[in-house]
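Researcher: We're reviewing a set of sequences before deciding which ones to prioritize for further study. For each one, I'd like a predicted 3D structure that I can look through quickly. This is Small ribosomal subunit protein uS5m. If possible, include the structure in token form so it fits the rest of the review sheet.
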Amino acid sequence: MQIQRSSSSFFSRNSGEQIWKGLMSVSNAGRRRGRGRGVNKKNYKDLNRGQIIGVGEKNFLWPGLNAPVIKGSEVVQHQELKQDPKYKENILKIRDQMERRNRTYVHPLERGWSSTKLLGKWIGPPDPIAGDEFVGFDTKVLVMKPIFYMKPNFGRTKKVSVLTVTGNGNGLVGYGVAKSKDVRTAINNSKNKAGQRLFRVELENNHTVLHDFYSRFGGTKVFVEKKPPGYGLSAHRCIRSICNVLGITDIKCTVEGSERNYLNLTRAFLLGLINQKNFQQMADEKKLNVVEFNESLQNYPIVRARPSTDECRTDKQIGANEILDFNIYVHDGKVKEQTELKPMHYTRNKGWTNYMKKWNYRKSRELVRINLIAKYGQLDSYLTIREKQRIETKREMARKSSQASD
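Model: Here's the predicted structure for Small ribosomal subunit protein uS5m, in token form for your review sheet.
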């Protein structure tokens, strides 16, 4: 007697994917209770992550793949770049970071404006052009935002807009804006555009601007103040990044109007730097001497520039409505918006009134000292002057009496 047995079973009727799904999955009721949170995580490494065309232990510039075919009016040639001996180590670090749940640790000096985001970070110098490298240059990212626009064929399309600024820290600076569907391409194109639009800015002692100035672009107004060494950068974070790239270390900047439009803010600040005038240009323009009164030198007058023609205008030649105040002249007649400061709470107390009465007679001591030194050449009060005059008159009378007796 022959018995027929079916060879089909649960394992043969279902695919391996379905079997593993039944083994590893969680029911809907269990999922609502918070079970199975790490079930669907991938257990493999993406070996393509971190690998870019033309980048490796030996780096190459491939026109049409990782570089444009034409830059300006020149055709880009295939060339070999500098070798990277630590390429394999960096790739292994990137793959190991995929297994970690926490974010990658970034050193505080390498971070941008906020955490590990790209804004405010250094991204290196622009790519070399015709074999000429940008030695000593570095670039910072100021803006990276998505842009959506409609097309009749493709509908809603997304691109990334990137604004970068590059410089050598010694007066050379340039900015560039680029858009692309790929983030890396947009960053690279923006960095290279910034390197092709460089211009020089004059600085005083390589640490601050030549003078205070006012500048405007669109709805953004910028008031910049010149500061002594050691003051630091007191400005908007976008302007601070431009100063780091440019080499400015001491400045105070106030922004009025639109502060979120970083492109207008960058243009306004760079436009003000370009339109700066040195003291000699001001003296030739006004045909007057430029004199500085510095508080750190007790307001001692210092002549900074004279007209090149050596002919200063007289009081009769100067018009009644002509601006002679330096601050109003360099700010183009504009004045910063003044904020009303409320008096402190302790000014209402009686003790504050008594303190001001005691301090009142000492308020002008420093000014009196300066005036006495300027007038008499030494610290003399009117009492000592009268005493000297009395002694001199006594001596004169004694001299005359002695001559009369003879």
